[in-house]
């Protein structure tokens, strides 16, 4: 079993997500800023005509909105955090001035993938138990058991860490299941063996006319087996005493 998956150990941070403004968004904001600046310039060159005033006002308004949107987006990205440990994933997702915090155990995560939408990489976490974290559309259907975090600079590092931890958890679950099934099988075989011994004991006549010589190791082993049968309730105390007395006479 992987050492970092042992529950008795302290929580260990595996990787931190590094969030920053994607180059695609930076270019997009710059392009709009240039376009609005050009509108302002053309509006000034129109010599106070109606169209010039309209261009000037539209350019100034658009430039202000673009700058404010860019600054708020940068602020939001700086507030984003995502940390992967050996037990859970916890994160803060900010959108402008609102924040959404989440913390999920690794055993409720079903899968993780990286999506690339027009140059914007997104880390998408899927849950096997339906967390209603953030509605997503897949093939036209709404899926509620997902959580998306974008603007992560080290997407591959975070993805690899989460994938490895998920595989470790699934391996642990499979190993635990195999161990439990093996225990059940062993208990069933033991119960069956005890039942056969008990049946043989009940069917064995207590005739001392032909005693069999029993060595000390055989006597101890058989007495130990009888005690286990008594403790497990397969035979009664009376049957145990009778067989014990029979062994002592041999």
Explain the overall architecture.
The protein has 250 residues and is an alpha+beta fold. Among the domains are: 88-203, no CATH class; 205-250, no CATH class. The chain is 53% helix and 21% strand. The protein has five helices and nine strands, in the order βααββββββββααα. It has helices spanning 23-45, 50-79, 155-203, 216-232, 237-249; strands at 13-16, 81-85, 88-95, 98-105, 109-117, 120-127, 136-138, 141-143, 146-150. A four-stranded antiparallel beta sheet has the order 1-2-3-4. Strands 5-6-9 form a three-stranded antiparallel beta sheet, covered by helices on one side. A hairpin with a 2-residue loop joins β2 and β3 (88-95). The two termini are 51 Å apart.
Which key features would you list for this structure?
single chain, 250 residues, alpha+beta, 4-stranded antiparallel beta sheet, 3-stranded antiparallel beta sheet, 5 helices, 9 strands, 53% helix, 21% strand, rod-shaped, disordered N terminus
Annotation, overall tally of beta strands: 9
Measured by DSSP, the beta-strand proportion falls in 15-25%
Biggest beta-sheet profile: 4 strands, antiparallel
- Helix content estimate: 40-55%
Largest sheet, spatial ordering of strands: 1-2-3-4
Spatial gap, N to C terminus: 51 Å
The pLDDT mean sits at 74
C-alpha geometry: rod-shaped
Summary?
With 250 residues, this protein is an alpha+beta fold.
Outline the fold blueprint:
Layout: E1 13-16, H1 23-45, H2 50-79, E2 81-85, E3 88-95, E4 98-105, E5 109-117, E6 120-127, E7 136-138, E8 141-143, E9 146-150, H3 155-203, H4 216-232, H5 237-249
């Amino acid at each position: 079993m992987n050492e970092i998956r042992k529950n008795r150990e302290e929580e260990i941070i595996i990787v931190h997500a590094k969030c920053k403004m994607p180059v695609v968004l930076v270019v997009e904001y710059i392009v709009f800023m240039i376009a609005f600046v050009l509108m302002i310039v053309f509006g000034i060159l129109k010599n106070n005509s109606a169209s010039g005033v309209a261009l000037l006002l539209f350019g100034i308004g658009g430039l202000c909105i673009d700058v404010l949107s860019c600054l708020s987006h940068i602020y939001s990205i700086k507030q984003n955090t995502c940390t992967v440990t050996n037990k859970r994933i916890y994160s803060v997702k900010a959108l402008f001035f609102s924040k959404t915090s989440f913390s999920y155990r690794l055993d409720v995560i079903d899968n993780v993938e990286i999506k690339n939408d027009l140059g914007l990489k997104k880390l998408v976490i899927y849950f096997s138990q339906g967390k209603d974290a953030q509605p997503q559309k897949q093939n036209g259907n709404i899926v509620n058991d997902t959580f998306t975090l974008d603007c992560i600079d080290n997407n591959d590092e975070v993805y690899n860490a989460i994938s490895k931890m998920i595989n470790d958890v699934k391996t642990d679950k499979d190993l635990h299941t195999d161990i439990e099934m093996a225990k059940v099988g062993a208990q069933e075989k033991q119960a069956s063996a005890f039942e056969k011994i008990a049946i043989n004991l009940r069917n064995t006549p207590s005739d001392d006319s032909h005693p069999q010589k029993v060595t000390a190791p055989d006597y101890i082993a058989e007495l130990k087996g009888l005690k286990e049968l008594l403790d497990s309730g397969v035979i009664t105390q009376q049957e145990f005493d009778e067989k014990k007395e029979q062994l002592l006479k041999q």
